[in-house]
Amino acid sequence: MFKSLGRRTLVFTAVALAAFTLATAAYAHHSWRKYHWARTSNPFTIKLGNNLGSGWSTYLTQASADWSQSSVLDTTVVAGQSNPTNCPPTLGRVEVCSANYGATGWLGIASIWTSGNAHIAQGTVKNNDYYFNQARYNTPAWRQFVTCQEVGHTFGLVHQDENFNNTNLGTCMDYTNDPTGTAGTNGALNNMHPNQHDYDQLLSIYTHLDSSTTVGQSTAAANMPPAALDIIIEGPGQWGKLVRGGRDKGYSEYELDFGGGNKVITHVIWASEEHQ
């Protein structure tokens, strides 16, 4: 069969393969290690607790609708069960909070509690109104971008790209200096919603099924030690060890290890004055 292929066909095939390889490299694997919600069937539903202040609810509603387009998971916005001033977690769901947390340097935080080195038992998202009330960040684009990204972290996703100056990839899982894509600095795509690669990555993460579930008030989720389950992630003193990034890079990942595969992992996006 190969003898019937002319030289032009072989050259075209090589060029096409090279193009495909480059495209694939631009959208690298971006699961957050092996972290995922345990569940026994797909699709499954994650509750997003609304503990947000005035002006935030529409962004959580949009993020929920966006992420629910995944073929393997749905989300639903429900009444919050947390105090937004410190945003304690609730077993089996994600609490989403906003408050004026002060001049902490961070814009948004996503934390997940994991057991067995992989299974997410609960999660929180915190948006810092100290910065979102300032002109740079007090825009629909920045609020949607950060809400979408931090919620995405609680499903087991990290970023497709971590350079704030690169051309936008058209996904909230891509760091940017311009989530609108209209300032002429980061290309023309907006970064306020997930893109197809995010949905493909979720499908990859959640292809397998588990023998038990950590979604909801489940026994499997409750098996974490009380010291891990009950800790409230209020600031750097509870973040643990820095494992990736740094303020100069604009993002950080911290890990608080309780042993036996029980951890709290926190992803931080820093406000612009904290990084170059």
Concise description?
The protein has 276 residues and is α/β, with parallel strands linked by helices. The protein has helices at 7-26, 57-67, 129-132, 140-153, 196-205, 219-222, 226-229, and strands spanning 36-37, 44-51, 73-79, 94-99, 106-115, 119-128, 241-246, 251-257, 263-270.
What does this entry look like structurally?
There is one protein chain. By secondary structure, the protein is α/β, with parallel strands linked by helices. It has one domain (32-274): Collagenase (Catalytic Domain) (3-Layer(aba) Sandwich), CATH 3.40.390.10. Helix content is 24%, strand content 23%. The chain contains seven helices and nine strands. It has helices at residues 7-26, 57-67, 129-132, 140-153, 196-205, 219-222, 226-229, and strands spanning 36-37, 44-51, 73-79, 94-99, 106-115, 119-128, 241-246, 251-257, 263-270. Strands 1, 2, 3, 4, 5, 6, 7, 8 and 9 form a nine-stranded mixed β-sheet that branches. The model is unreliable at 1-27 (pLDDT under 50).
